[in-house]
Amino acid sequence: MENIEKSKAELSNIEYKIGHCLTYRENGFYEILGSGTDEHGFYIEIESRFYSDKKEKVRQSDLKQYYSYLDVKYSEMLEKYEKFLAGDLDFTKDETNFDSNTQVMSFDKNAYISMRDELERKASVLNALTNRMHNEMENKRRRMNEMVDVFRKKVAKLEKIIQTIELYLGIREEIVQIQSGENHADESPIYFMQNMLFIDEEMGDPTDGGYSIENFSDFDKWLVKKNEYLGYYNHEILIPYKKGVRILRMRRNEKERGIGSDNPFLRAAYIEADMRTYLLIKNGDNIYKICTTINFGSKLFPNQTELIDLYEKELQELKNILSRNGVKITDENRNQEASKAVDKVAEIYKRNFIIMQGLIDRTELFGNIAGFVNLMDISASKTGAIELIYENKSNKIEDGTISPLQFYYNAKKVNEGDQVLFLGADNAWRGDYKKYYFYNIYRNSEYAWPPSPSAGIYTVYKDKGEYKEGVLYIKTPMTDNSYRYYDDEPKRKMTVRFKINDNGCLCVNLNIISHRDLNDLTRLMHDRRGRENYLKTMSTLIEVKKAKEKELEIEAPFAQMIQGQTGLELSDVLDQIHWWKTKNKWKRPLLSDDIKAFRMILKNIKNLQKNISK
Predict the structure, then answer these.
(1) Which of 10, 110, 128, 587 could form a disulfide with 29 if both were Cys (CB 3.0 to 4.6 A apart)?
(2) d(CA 141, CA 290)
(3) Would you kindly state where each structural domain of the chain is located, as residue ranges?
(4) What one-character DSSP code corresponds to residue 90?
């Protein structure tokens, strides 16, 4: 057997023989085929650890660090391996002819060393055989998994085809007609509205946490009802065209329900029902609602540059990744991964239009146009058969008016002396939070804390204490038993301070709103901007409008007195009342017996009239 030259390899004292074995960690044994030298230096050539028909070069550094030499012919190892697999290889048989009595008495050290080396060789052989078996089984498992993955991919493709057919045939849908009448002209375009809207937000009633599946039947009545303020039917707000489609969902977020909220199964059923998707379809006077279990996503179709932007974003993120799982990532790999991410999103939009195509071809919801409109053909939009209504922010034109959310945040700005409408505070019912809100009271037990202030109108004060300077608070009367230490302690008639300059506390400054803003409050209630915040904005608008109307009712006798003295229009008189209230630090409604305010307002009116006459 040819030996590899030590002088070339510099391989310590081991004689590496061609045709013998190298073991690699826990991957079995491999045949030494030869050696050589290239531009990187000396190497030993073995059969490939990965491919049976290829060779592999082992460098000196790897040889010392990862490989072990097994002084057994490769052919012998293969024979042993076949017997090992068959269970015919017995390593327990003692082939050393070791007699403990005679060997010990002879004190033959070399005999012990020889036996030790032989046992170590046997252990190395057994270990190599075991590792080879494990490695081959692992390779078989990997190959079987690869085969399974191939079948899974084929099954997934078939499932997609089946799902596409089902979507086209409308197997998972239920069509309900809400209103009947005449269809619009068949040749008129179908308007596809881009964004999903949420039924509870569009109905805009914040009572009891907003609409949900429990009162879903009210939606049908609301759709055909006319919005007197806007002058449109509600279905025209959702689809402002004679023929069109809008995707809807009951709610954007989970509703906080008191009853049954601790039951996980009931809660899951409510969430599933609230998150179900609906299609609203209009054709002239006919209105249809389609219930489906399919998730359309947040948009029916993408923005103009959405897929291109997604591709560039994915590509940019992948540029920073040089390798994955030890494999170098090339530009071609990056392009492929970015394309896959785009295809995944595009697949959803394609599916949405397959559903629409099925409705066009197999129903008369859009009229008798089967075979004339192909949504998969880009020419459909060019010929005027369909119109895509993009509703992303870049396509919206603002009218310059304040939005409901802007009003909400502006109205929360208060100062000392203002009158505020207190509507509640986050977690104010909890003992640990009460310690924060009732900041100047010291109680250890949460049961000794007073209840949170009731909703109503309060005056704002500013703490000028050394450590609490700048804290804004309202005074709330406390005659409650919960503030007493003992049951037999008499009720205390006192006021306590409740901190309000906090994001969790909802106080609306009533003094920034005049009688002329009441119409704006009504407009804001019908404003579609920031509709997702309706639970806080709508309830605030409703309560503020009620409070201002009540204030005007209280001030009506005073306004009539001013009007009788000056002959001004009521709106001009109310302007003067608002002027007087806002010019003073401490604001309050004006009653008919407020002589000081009466005289000051009359004087201001006379001064204004003099300036006008000049």
Answers:
(1) 128
(2) 48
(3) 6-139, 173-258+267-310+355-395, 404-525, 542-613
(4) -
